[in-house]
Structure formats: structure tokens, C-alpha cells
Specification:
about 400 residues; alpha/beta; 8-stranded mixed sheet; 3-stranded antiparallel sheet
């Protein structure tokens, strides 16, 4: 808003200056008497200072005759008397003050009429989907989903779905609403269950994924569980010859749990390694981390997996990564024949809100979850019910 100041010897002259400069629709904001003294303390000539603006939409402060373009004449009979200009100033200030007070009262009343509930506040902040018909319990659950890093659009969809067809008591009760939402989320989370190992048969399972997601540690956890706890014959194959000490790391695990291990650097080596371990019930293949952007390395990985004739290919992803990164990585590794997802570093993740969106995007089931570095502990079979209850706040991770 542009405000201009005008000074004149009288209120009449000041108003005429405003009209000529800003037009007849100008708004008078302030008027006062000033004196131009010498050095700030000697009295000077009295003047009228007017602040006006052409941007403010308000009724014109000028009399009708002035607004129509004519010269303004004070209709007051006291205009010619001494002090008449002072009366003009007082009259203008009184008019502006009354209108200001009226606008202020109207604004206060309008603010009091605004909705104050959490439901309506979210409606104003998120106008794309109407929330005014939601109960307070629904809004609380909705905000909890956002805190759990569930994407906003998905959170809205889930709340709308659990509210549809629900009885009034269920929708208004936060605990019952969370239970309904947990059941809905459970249906969104597909799981594949643990690795199935049968006597007399060899099952080959490969772990693939980008660098730094914990493939080698996860493979050691699986090997220790099936060898030490389930008493199965387990063999290990590694093709991770790029990372420094990767082979030595896995060989250390193999020595501790007493399982054979082979190293393969080419597709032919992979085929020979699998043949040498054909007497084992479970063969776990550890692959080198590949950048999702490196298409050549992804194709090399695909060739290696074709030679080992893998029954299952688990894509290992860290849930500490962002939702967008997880989706893009899953898209790039789909070319190697991924059959399920294995999520790591749950102990480092801020929330599991991106999980339903990831599963929708990939259409792959979850196999295992890891939540630490301890071997063979800190790994568990993915449980859709438990994950859903964690996401809605009914259980802790």
C-alpha cells in the first residue's frame, strides 16, 4: 500500500491536494496539525498534514462536490469564523476514527466466527480434500500418520476409507479408529514369509541391492539362523570382490558358524560354485552393491544371477532412505528378477510411513526386517499386522 503525505495551510487546501494528486476516490488515513519550527524548538507556521492513499478500498473521505470534480466548500456556517479550519480537521479525524473502529470491530467479529477446531484448521491448511466432516479422532489419527512419514495423499485416502461405513462410535473413538486403520494397512502390506528349506533339495537365495544397505551382515544373520538354530546345511557364495575386505568379512562369518564358502568373479565361476555346494540345503549368494544408475553393472548382476539359477532374489533396501529413493532403486533392480523386498536399518528410520506406498509401487512382498548389527539377532520375518500396528501407534517398533 502506497501512502503519501500532503501539507497545506488549511484542511481545505490539503483535501484539494489529495483530490488532484490521487483522485476523488482517495482514502484519508490521518490528519494532524504540524508546525515547521526552526531547529526543532522555535515555533513556526502552522500547517495541516494529511496522509492519504489511493490503494485502500474505502468510501471516499471527500465531500460529494469535491468527488465530482468541483472545488470543495465547507457547508458549515462557521467556516469563515476563526478556528473553522481546526473544526474541519477535528471533523475529518473523527470520521476516520469512527470508521477505523467500525472496521476493527468487524474484523474481530469475523475472527471470532472463524472455525477454531483442529478439523477446520486442517481444512483451511489443506483445501484439496475436505476435512470438515472428519471427527476429532480422525484428525488426530491423520496427524499421527503424517508424523510417521505417511505421504499426505495416502494418509487422506486411508482416513477416508476407514471412516466410510464405520459406525459413529467407531469413528469418534480414537482407539477403535486406529484398530480399523491397522486392519486396513495390514491388507496393504504383503509378506512372503521366511525362507522355506526342504530336506533333500537345494534352494538358492540371492541378496541384491545398492551399496551400504547391509547385504553382507543380513546374509550372515540368515546363515547363522538356519545353520545354528534350524540345523540346516548352509553354503555361502560371494561375488562382492569390489569392496575392500568384503570377502574376508563373509569368510569370518562362515568360519564362525562352520559353513562352506565359495568366491565367484565371473558367470562361469558362479556356475561352478553352485555345483560345488549342491549338497547344501540352502545356498545364500552375496552380491556386490550396485548403483541404481549404473545400467551396465545391473546387467552384469543379472547375468551372474542367471548362472546361479536363484530361486529367490531379495532386494535389500534401507528404510532410512527417502521414499522417492526407495522407489527409484526398486525400479532399476526390477530387471534382475527381484521376488521380494528385505528392509534393513529399522532402528535408524524416522518412521515406516513410506512402506505402504513402496509396496504399492513395487507390488512385491516383504520377506525380512532387520533392526541392528547383531548376528544372528536383530532380524525377524516381516509381519504385516505388527508393522501396521506400529504405524498407527498401537505398538512400538
Amino acid at each position: 500500500m502506497e501512502v503519501k503525505a500532503f501539507r497545506a495551510r488549511s484542511m481545505q487546501e490539503a483535501l484539494q491536494l489529495v483530490r488532484r494528486t490521487l483522485g476523488p476516490d482517495a482514502t484519508l488515513l490521518q490528519a494532524r496539525e504540524v508546525r515547521n519550527g526552526l531547529l526543532g524548538w522555535l515555533p513556526g507556521v502552522r500547517q495541516i498534514e494529511v496522509l492519504a492513499s489511493a490503494d485502500v478500498q474505502a468510501p471516499c473521505r471527500l465531500p460529494a462536490s469535491a468527488a465530482q470534480g468541483g472545488d470543495w466548500e465547507d457547508p458549515s456556517p462557521d467556516a469563515a469564523e476563526p478556528g473553522a479550519e481546526r473544526n474541519e480537521t477535528r471533523l475529518a479525524l473523527t470520521s476516520w476514527d469512527c470508521e477505523y473502529r467500525a472496521r476493527f470491530r468487524a474484523a474481530v467479529l469475523a475472527d471470532q466466527a472463524e472455525p477454531q477446531s483442529l478439523v477446520e484448521e486442517l481444512s483451511r491448511r489443506s483445501p484439496r480434500v475436505p476435512l470438515r466432516h472428519w471427527s476429532e479422532a480422525a484428525v488426530c489419527v491423520y496427524t499421527d500418520l503424517l508424523d510417521a512419514e505417511v505421504p499426505e495423499d495416502l494418509a487422506r485416502e486411508l482416513i477416508e476409507r476407514v471412516c466410510q461405513g464405520g459406525q459413529l462410535g467407531e469413528i469418534d473413538d480414537s482407539l477403535m479408529l486406529r484398530a480399523r486403520l491397522a486392519r486396513l494397512l495390514e491388507s496393504e502390506i504383503q509378506v512372503s514369509g521366511p525362507l522355506v528349506v526342504q530336506s533333500g533339495k537345494t534352494r538358492v537365495v540371492a541378496l541384491v541391492g545398492p551399496t551400504g544397505v547391509g547385504k553382507t551382515t543380513t546374509l550372515a544373520k540368515l546363515a547363522a539362523d538356519y545353520r545354528l538354530r534350524q540345523q540346516r546345511r548352509v553354503g555361502l557364495v560371494t561375488v562382492d570382490t569390489y569392496r575392500i575386505a568384503a570377502v574376508e568379512q563373509l569368510r569370518t562369518y562362515a568360519d564362525i558358524i562352520d559353513v562352506p564358502m565359495e568366491v565367484a568373479t565371473t558367470p562361469r565361476d558362479m556356475r561352478l560354485a553352485i555345483d560345488r555346494l549342491s549338497g547344501q540345503e540352502l545356498i545364500l549368494v552375496d552380491t556386490a552393491g550396485r548403483s541404481p544408475r549404473d545400467g551396465v553393472r545391473i546387467q552384469e548382476l543379472k547375468s551372474l544371477l542367471a548362472e546361479c539359477r536363484a530361486d529367490e532374489v531379495h532386494l535389500v533396501l534401507s528404510v532410512a532412505s527417502g521414499e522417492g529413493c526407495l522407489k527409484r532403486t526398486a525400479e532399476r533392480f526390477a530387471a534382475v528378477g527381484v521376488t521380494s523386498l528385505l528392509l534393513t536399518k529399522l532402528d535408524e528410520a524416522g518412521g515406516l510411513g513410506g512402506l505402504p506406498s513402496l509396496l504399492r509401487h513395487t507390488r512385491l512382498p516383504l520377506s525380512y526386517l532387520t533392526h541392528g548389527q547383531n548376528v544372528p539377532a536383530d532380524i525377524e520375518v516381516a509381519d504385516g499386522k505388527k508393522l501396521a500396528r506400529i504405524m498407527v501407534g498401537l505398538e512400538r517398533a
